[in-house]
Amino acid sequence: MSETTNRQVSSAIIYGIEDHPPFKEAFFAALQHLLAIFVAIITPPLIIAGALNLDLETTGFLVSMALFASGVSTFIQYRRVGSIGTGLLCIQGTSFSFIGPIISTGLAGGLPLIFGVCMAGSVVEMLISRVLKYAKKVITPLVSGIVVTLIGMSLVKVGITACGGGGIAKENGTFGSFENLGLALLVLVLIIFFNRSNNKYLRMSSIVIGLVVGYVVAYFMGMIDFSSVQSYSGVNIPVPFKYGLAFSWSSFIAVGLIYMITAIEAYGDITANSMISGEPVEGEKFIKRASGGILADGFNSFLAGAFNSFPNSVFPQNNGMIQLTGVASRYVGYYIAVFLVILGLFPAVGLVFSLMPEPVLGGATLLMFGTVAAAGIRIIASQNINRKATLVIALSFSLGLSVEFIPEILNSCPDTIKNIFSSGITTGGLTAIVSNVLIRVKE
Description:
Elements: H1 3-12, H2 23-51, H3 56-79, E1 92-94, H4 99-130, H5 132-138, H6 141-164, H7 166-172, H8 178-195, H9 200-204, H10 206-220, H11 249-276, H12 284-306, E2 312-314, H13 317-325, H14 332-345, H15 347-354, H16 358-381, H17 387-405, H18 415-421, H19 424-438
Antiparallel strand pairs: 1-2
Helix pairs in contact: 2-3, 2-4, 2-13, 2-14, 3-12, 3-14, 3-15, 4-11, 4-12, 6-7, 6-11, 6-16, 6-17, 6-19, 8-10, 8-16, 10-16, 11-12, 11-13, 11-18, 11-19, 17-19
């Protein structure tokens, strides 16, 4: 970033990263960040729990632990503990990228295998943080773009299944009913409507508004039964390893690949955060900050697994919030972390959201997952698409989407091979990495 650009960005910032805003301003800045990330944090555990047909109590606990883990992770990122963390207003939450592999892992071995593999896989990202300059040569923007696009495309299947009513609807014969599809469409239309608003607060709250209205409508349609919850009181005490741990090499490879991509994504998000905050985006200070942030990304995911939650990653949407508010002070992260931990400790929050009907969640996530795919396409489009890049893209999408559409193609393979390549994300991602290194084109 040029000195002129740096000066322009700095002038747009009201409070720099080391400034201490007054309580009122810091509090309201933190609330706006919370509004931007809350739904994104609780959505992955809700989707995973729905796909694995987990009971209401377990689902509520997973949602609570996702909030708790995000609070602890955000504290580590902004506070910078030793060499772990960015020292920026860098917020972490449950990652969407892992949903596909986690569901496959859960169907194979339940929650113990999910948490065991996610904790083991986090070491991959921590190692990448130590060899960042070499990893960037292998996991190029083209590879990252292909994987992010495949993640979005694969998750659209999960989203549309939720719109139809999910696994329960398939069992009772109501899948794809007018009520389910109509409710999902209502949520989708509301989110698009408010997202187009010129009012920045309505635009930021579009997903929350869509979910709340959908939730209320579903209640009056008789789709929510509050009597199924025995108690909303008490406190959720985080219990490490509550569900136990297990391990599988095939699941580890699938999850480890996503950690590789997440590391490079985190690098991009930290670069954007530094630039928006008026901090350098090159030189020793920046490299130290980026390495610490990626190390924290992996370490926090390890910590999340220990506390019965899913992998965490840096949230890019908060970079836009810094730009919007002009508050880049990392001390605002303290308020955000406290909010998230408090929300996670009270089971009422998790239980209320665990009652959310699948079509309501599906209407919101369908758009979210489409946005993920679109983000991947933008990354690909930003590269020079020459003959080699075309071959890499074609090969990766062909193989990745093949196993996603027709998983039966692997039925004759050994179980280990089948488990590794049953995910289109894993197959397409590994293909992208290998083909990008091996394919040589002489123009």
